[in-house]
Specification:
alpha+beta, 21% strand, four-stranded antiparallel β-sheet, eleven-stranded mixed β-sheet, globular, 19 strands, Dipeptide-binding Protein, domain 3, 547 residues, Dipeptide-binding Protein, domain 1, 14 helices
């Protein structure tokens, strides 16, 4: 029997277990339709504009809303509310605290930022009408006038400065750390002029600002349960364990959305979510199982800026040798993982959390080849402690096929002699524990996760691979220097080369097992008009319902 055949048989068994696990509520939310019904993007590249200056030209003006509704012939007010199903319930509705998808599906419709992204994922003005880099350490924003928060408070430079200062405060425990990196302050110059101060040149500042939600000065202490923003929808109620509900903001500064009401329903079991979709109880299931493609009314798929990985704690002696980490990568058959578990709705990661259309992509790299015999030999050469138990942590029900992928990786590592145990944890606990520094007690040995690249830029990964990164458990000073160069140069060619060189180092001295670039799969009702985005955002204002 060939190694490939063994892997296929193992994955077939794992996939079968996934259906059972899904029925027990331990898998991701799911549902889908036949390949003929699949719509959306079909390539693996981000828009060509993402390869250049992802921060958009200084002084840009725009009147286009990033969330403009699509045209619809049906009067949405007469339609039943839109219902979106997600796997896990948010831990908070304060968008400045977290950035996981199941929270963002709701909060991105309530809150807005100074800048946003259009359907081509280009950075465009939103609550700011224009902006420019006025010095090496200063960006100046001219804000949109006539905008109010849902509580009636005016949006102005004071509230914008407050929002930024709140997020960068040492006392504020945000998990959006990548977006505030190197931002040191914000000041209201006048009512509608804001200055953001940075710690040196910060080329990624506009991209970062797209993920800094604006919040009101009054009532900020209760945003976790009573969210208040400037967005096209406003909060109605949070029914714990059931759903969170929003209604159209009739005082919205932009075009009114077509859909009046929507809710985010929490359905942890993928089979239950599929049944609800088939019965017309929900309109959109975020993440569906590939094997359910023939069962949903409509399925949509888009190649995403989402990369699955298993991060190493390189401070653990057993994982400190780069040869060990290369060997772990060699032990995994990523092609089979993509073809069997994900039924082709993924591709092996090119050993970098970038697509070939993103700034910093290194074309000389590729997946670390599958070679279990070579992996075992390299582990022996490095003196790997085969008797030591290594723990692989995975969240329950958070990532599409996450538990199955972790089980498959564990089996392949066992095949080369690694003594490994899987630890499955509720997502909110997993997220907190995953931030424990590698040098501290309780730090995860191995952590399965997905990394999204909303920057469409090599700078997005900084917090995962630098010595002081909030999600990092590796320290390579040369990588820090290159990441710093990429973040501080305004020369796009210099930035591109710096990130390429950093990923070359991380190929030979891996911070993770580089698994797959994922497609995002959705189950969609026949009445919902919507196209998925590459940046994994869900703007209800761009959706419409037919009669």
């Amino acid at each position: 029997m060939t190694r490939h055949t063994s892997a296929v048989r193992l994955l077939a068994a794992v996939a079968a277990l996934g259906l059972i696990a899904g029925a027990c509520g331990d898998d991701d939310d799911a549902s889908i339709d036949s390949p003929e019904a699949t719509t959306g993007a079909t390539g693996t590249e981000a828009p060509s504009d993402a390869t250049g200056d992802t921060t958009a030209p200084a002084g840009t003006d725009a009147t286009e809303s990033t969330t403009a509704p699509e045209e619809t012939d049906a009067p949405a007010d007469d339609a039943a509310p839109l219902v979106i199903a997600v796997t896990t319930e948010p831990s908070t509705l304060d968008a400045q605290l977290v950035n996981d998808r199941n929270s963002r599906v709701f909060t991105a419709n309530i809150y807005e930022a100074l800048l946003g992204r259009n359907e081509n994922v280009e950075v465009v003005p939103l609550l700011a009408e224009s902006y420019e880099n006025t010095s090496d350490t200063t960006w100046t924003f001219t804000l949109r006038e006539g905008v109010t928060f849902h509580n009636g408070e005016p949006f102005n430079a004071e509230s914008a400065a407050f929002s930024i200062q709140r997020m960068i405060s040492e006392d504020f425990d945000t998990q959006r750390t990548s977006y505030i990196d190197s931002i040191v302050g914000a000041t209201a110059v006048d009512e509608y002029t804001l200055e953001i101060e940075t710690d040196g040149v910060l080329a990624t500042l506009p991209a970062q600002v797209t993920q800094i939600p604006m919040v009101p000065v009054e009532g900020a202490e209760t945003l976790d349960t009573e969210p208040v923003g400037t967005g096209p929808y406003k909060f109605v109620e949070w029914n714990t364990g059931v759903d969170v509900v929003a209604t159209r903001n009739d005082d919205y500064w932009g075009d009114p959305p077509a859909i009046k009401d929507f809710s985010i329903r929490f359905i942890s079991d993928n089979q239950t979510a599929l049944s609800a979709l088939q019965a017309g109880e929900v309109d959109l299931v975020v993440d569906i199982l590939p094997e359910q493609k023939d069962l949903a009314p409509i399925v949509k798929s888009v190649p995403a800026a989402e990369f699955s990985y298993i991060a190493f704690n390189t401070y653990l002696p057993a994982l400190s040798d780069p040869r060990v980490r290369v060997a772990f990568n060699m032990a995994i058959d990523k092609e089979t993982l993509a073809d069997v578990v994900y039924e082709g709705e993924a591709r092996p990661n090119d050993s970098q959390n970038l697509t070939d259309a993103m700034l910093g992509y290194n074309p000389d790299l590729g997946p670390i080849p599958y070679d279990p015999e070579g992996a075992r030999a390299l582990l022996e050469e490095a003196g790997y402690p085969f008797d030591e138990v290594i723990e692989l942590n995975v969240p329950i029900g958070r990532y599409l096929k996450g538990e199955e992928s972790a089980e498959y990786v564990a089996e392949q590592l066992r095949a080369v002699g690694v003594n490994i145990e899987i630890i499955a944890t509720e997502f909110n606990t997993y997220r907190e524990d995953g931030r424990i520094p590698g040098t501290e007690e309780g730090a995860m040995d191995l952590k399965y996760g997905w990394n999204s690249n909303e920057f469409f830029d090599g700078g997005r990964i900084l917090s995962h691979v630098t010595c002081e990164g909030s999600s990092s458990k590796i320290c390579i000073p040369e990588v820090d220097e290159l990441m710093e160069l990429g973040a501080t140069s305004l020369d796009q060619d210099v930035r591109d080369q710096a990130y390429q060189d950093a990923w070359a180092l991380l190929h030979d001295d891996p911070y993770a097992i580089y698994l797959l670039q994922q497609n995002l799969l959705y189950g969609v009702s026949e009445r919902l008009q919507w196209e998925p985005r590459q940046d994994d955002e869900y703007y209800v204002s761009t959706m419409a319902l037919t009669a």
